[in-house]
What we know:
2 domains, 3 helices, single chain
Amino acid sequence: MSNVHDIGTDLARLRSGLKSGDGGGTFEGMEARVKHLEDDMKEVKADLKALRSDVAELKGRVAMLPGYGGIAVIVGLIVALSTAAQIAARFLPPAG
């Protein structure tokens, strides 16, 4: 088998335009399609920028939440106050 390739056939095929894709099989409309894709990418980039801002805000909010130690302290205070109220209620005279 020969490694010789007829470039004339390839040139004729290329000069006739694209033979696949969504542009009707030609180079016509390529600029409009590329422009549309570029505009879409601008919108995607803008959306990504907004998402980054939202994620940064959420990170800030999560950082302000108490960790396990803070939750343990809060639960401990609730238990202590509840216990103190029950003990105080035993020493108060009945209402009425």
